[in-house]
Design goal:
Belongs to the DEAD box helicase family. By secondary structure, the chain is an alpha/beta fold. It has 17 helices and 14 strands. The protein folds into two domains: 209 residues, P-loop containing nucleotide triphosphate hydrolases (Rossmann fold, 3-Layer(aba) Sandwich); 157 residues, Rossmann fold, CATH 3.40.50. Helix 3 crosses helix 4, helix 6 crosses helix 8 and helix 14 packs across helix 15.
């Protein structure tokens, strides 16, 4: 068993940070924080992976803030840039900065798509120490000279795997190129096996330390993974209604794979009498704030979200995650289910599994190293009982029978091929009213005929 990490009060962090940690009730660093803090404080580039909800945000914020407090700013430009894939994650990072820097004069600003560009430019002109941004919007500001990264000391690429999956690879390259060459680069990813992450690390990090603590595929040990067999969408809808009625929960998060399905399901839940909200990329910034505030305050108990919008959500007392549509990949499943069971609390993750979802469930089980518990709802048992045969991998065994392959000679053995005669085929397709065709060969023309179907020329009679 690994030795327990020292208390924050026993570390060399700045006293104002210790005061903020104490005010937030944080006494001891998490595993990722205990390992990352000394490496980042030593000025090392870092390539790190940790499970969602493990405290990785504070793992890079604490040493960043500590250096800013202990070392005067050499210039007036931004000292830290944190690049994240979504607005929701940017908001979460901003909340952490606000809490940890509450006893300091360090300023930050949030630069994401969907907000007024000119207002953001005015924030950047105030030269905040830290910028939290999404890739596309910070590229726009760099292109219009709203800001520059010449004085940057820290560049953090948070959830880099998700950024690359969303097509931000080129933008990440532009951001790195625009940054101060002497910066310290910290890359955090859900998994270090992502080929794009490996490529980015090799290209942009300088002799990085690799840190893989509480690998995300292990998931949270305090999350119960369950699945419910379903026949079709209608059956899932009835099961969802009964599940929400029968279970006791403070807040529930339901995932779908499309925005249209999220909207439709929210309407259905409202029809069933549930206070439900929806969260996806089509909503404006104000709408997102409104929905999330209502969800956090308990005015809305059920939130229907897509994977992209749900990335980075951190909501207290979220006890139940339901995968109405099964996650498309094991990575997505881990991030979905990781919205619950945070900060040592218990959580439940329930998947609705149709015949088409079985193999995907098996992949998620192997990825997380856990066997999902099968549950059922009385009166709503599915006709689908799972595959008849299961492979050692957990996937459904194929049902196709193998056909014998035979050679051409084997096929012809014992079968005498019938002889085809021209006289047997000459009248095929010929209308009966024309009578039988002549047995004469088609190219045998009458004397004087050109064989073109016309009557032969008449020879003049000799007088």
């Amino acid at each position: 068993m690994a030795p327990e990490a020292p208390l924050f009060s026993e570390t060399t962090l700045h006293e104002r940070l210790l005061k903020a940690l104490e005010a937030g009730g944080l006494q001891r660093p998490t595993n990722i924080q205990a390992h990352a803090l000394p490496l980042i404080k030593a000025g090392k580039d870092l390539l790190a992976s940790a499970e969602t909800g493990s405290g990785k945000t504070a793992a890079y914020l604490l040493p960043m803030l500590d250096k800013m407090l202990n070392t005067p700013a050499p210039n007036s430009g931004a000292r830290g840039l944190i690049v994240v894939p979504t607005r929701e994650l940017a908001q979460q990072v901003g909340k952490h900065i606000k809490q940890l820097a509450s006893f300091t004069k360090i300023q930050y600003c949030q630069i994401t798509g969907g907000d007024d560009f000119k207002f953001q430019a005015s924030l950047l002109r105030k030269n905040p120490e830290i910028i939290v941004a999404t890739p596309g919007r910070i590229i726009e500001h760099l292109g219009r000279n709203s800001t520059d990264l010449n004085d940057l000391e820290f560049l953090v690429l948070d959830e880099a795997d998700r950024m690359l999956d969303m097509g931000f690879s080129e933008d990440v390259g532009k951001i790195v190129t625009a940054s101060n060459e002497e910066r310290q680069t910290l890359l955090f990813s859900a998994t270090l096996s992502h080929p794009g992450v490996i490529k980015v690390a090799q290209r942009y990090l300088s002799e990085p330390e690799t840190l893989e603590v509480d690998a995300p595929r292990s998931g949270h040990s305090n999350i119960r993974h369950q699945y419910l067999l379903s026949d079709d969408t209608h059956h899932k809808q009835l099961a969802l209604k009964k599940l929400l009625n029968d279970r006791s929960f403070n807040k529930a998060l339901i995932f779908t794979n499309t925005k249209n399905e999220a909207n439709r399901l929210r309407g259905l839940l409202a029809y069933y009498g549930f206070e439900a909200g929806t969260l996806h990329s089509d909503l404006t910034q104000d709408q997102r704030f409104s929905v999330m505030n209502a969800f956090r305050q308990g005015k809305v108990k059920v939130l229907v979200a897509t994977d992209l919008a749900g990335r980075g959500l951190d909501v207290k007392d979220l006890e139940l995650v339901i995968h109405f549509d099964m996650a498309r990949s094991p990575d997505d499943y881990v991030h979905r289910s990781g919205r619950t069971g945070r900060a040592g609390n218990e959580g439940v993750s329930i998947c609705f599994i149709t015949p088409a979802d079985w193999n995907n469930k098996a992949r998620c089980e192997r990825f997380t190293g856990s066997n999902f518990e099968r549950i059922s709802l009385k009166g709503l048992e599915a006709k689908y009982k799972g595959p008849d045969k299961v492979k050692s991998s957990g996937k459904a065994a194929g049902t196709k029978k193998k056909t014998k392959t035979t050679t051409r000679h084997q096929k012809n053995d014992g079968k005498k091929k019938a002889k085809v005669r021209a006289r047997d085929t000459v009248n095929k397709g010929r209308p009966k009213r024309f009578g039988p065709a002549s047995n004469a060969k088609k190219d045998a023309a009458e004397p004087g005929s050109f064989g073109d179907g016309f009557a032969p020329l008449k020879k003049p009679k000799k007088s």
